[in-house]
Amino acid sequence: MNVSAVMMRIIRQFVRDKRSLALLIMAPVLVLTLIWLVLDGNEYHPTIAVESIPAPLEDRLHDEFNKEILTKTEAEAKEMFEQGKLDAYVSIKDNNPFILLEGSDPTANGAVMQHIQSAFQVTQSNSTDRNLTVEYFYGSENINLFDQVGSVLIGFFVFFFVFILGGISFLRERTQGTLEKLLSTPIKRWQLVTGYIFGFGIFTIIQSLIIVFYSVYVLDIWMAGSVWELLIVTVLLALTALTLAILLSAFAKNEFQIMQFIPLVIIPQVFFSGIFNLDTLAEWIQALSKIMPLTYGAEAMQEIMIKGKGILEIWDNLVVLCMFAFVFFVLNLLALKKHRRL
């Protein structure tokens, strides 16, 4: 009897909590759909450029890659590498084959090399003594999969932990009555939100420092750029996550409901932040990544860590992150206006 009473109480509690009931159904469906969309894309066909190579080899490369082969000089190829429009450049130097790989994606590097080597073996069966020279525009042959996705993972963990820390902390301010008392004073809403952001922000910055320095100096993740410039990106991403967490916590009644936002807000961003190649997906799916803050933070981190670029070269991503933070800040002011009326 006692067991059935407890069971019925739990069932009634879930039935009354419409948000939990909806999430019970929607969350797994959403996540599985995202996985299907990302992993069910078309095969990726690398883009390569050639210069001064024998016609039979160019024809074979065309067959291997099933894609048009561009004719570019090495300088033009390097410019396309910087624009992210080329995967490899092939030419003949000193009577030996020369390959220049873009280098930032180990998976793409391996696929490109497999096709190129196959083409060389078929067309140069009588010239197997030739030395193949391979160079990397970004990274090196030592860069691995963890180095590639590590920058995305740093951005994800910063975003995730700051979201949890900020959301739960602000929720406690509400449930303990602190927010209500502050709103009853003459303090302005923008001052209150700014104070919360700076207060919580100190701890999010500390957390960001730990994540970045541990990843770079302990895990020895590939780092071609400046650690301090990486920290600037990390702090901006953490600020965006914090303002979003404070905003969503205004609509949660308890800590469990804060956790419910994770499958809807955090997990989808992982699939569109650079861990998976989105070039093989439909354009409308790629467009989804443009409305997710983690996309811009992870891209900026990859540019610094793998390609060695500086802040001035990734300013557009930083501006977008600032815009996200500003929009969430304004929405927080509107949310506080509702609480002040209450």
Order of helices and strands: HHEHEHEEHEHHHHHHHHH
Structural class: alpha/beta
Shape: elongated
The overall strand count is: 5
Number of domains: 2
Hey, roughly how much beta strand do the residues contain? Answer: 5-15%
Query: How many H/I helices?
Result: 14
Give the overall pLDDT as a whole number.
80
- Unreliable stretches (pLDDT < 50, length at least 5) are 125-129
Helix content: 55-70%
- Amino-to-carboxy terminus distance: 42 Å
Q: Radius of gyration in whole Å, from Cα?
A: 25 Å
- Side-by-side strand order of the widest sheet: 2-1-3-4-5
Largest sheet: 5 strands, mixed
Keywords: Cell membrane, Membrane, Transmembrane, Transmembrane helix, Transport
Pfam families: ABC2_membrane_3
Transmembrane segments: 21-39, 149-171, 192-218, 230-251, 258-278, 318-336
Membrane topology: Multi-pass membrane protein
Structure description:
It is a single chain. The chain is an alpha/beta fold. The chain folds into 2 domains: 48-136, D-Maltodextrin-Binding Protein, domain 2; 145-341, no CATH class. Helices cover 66% and strands 6% of the residues. It has helices at 2-16, 18-39, 55-65, 74-82, 106-123, 145-175, 178-183, 189-218, 227-249, 255-260, 262-271, 283-288, 293-305, 315-341, and strands spanning 48-51, 70-71, 88-93, 96-101, 133-136. Strands 2-1-3-4-5 form a 5-stranded mixed sheet, with helices on one face. α3 links the parallel β1 (48-51) and β2. α6 (145-175) runs antiparallel to α11 (262-271) and α8 (189-218) packs across α14 (315-341). The radius of gyration is 25 Å and the shape is elongated. This is ABC-2 type transport system permease protein. The chain crosses the membrane at residues 21-39, 149-171, 192-218, 230-251, 258-278, 318-336. It comes from Salirhabdus euzebyi. It is a multi-pass membrane protein. Belongs to the ABC-2 integral membrane protein family.
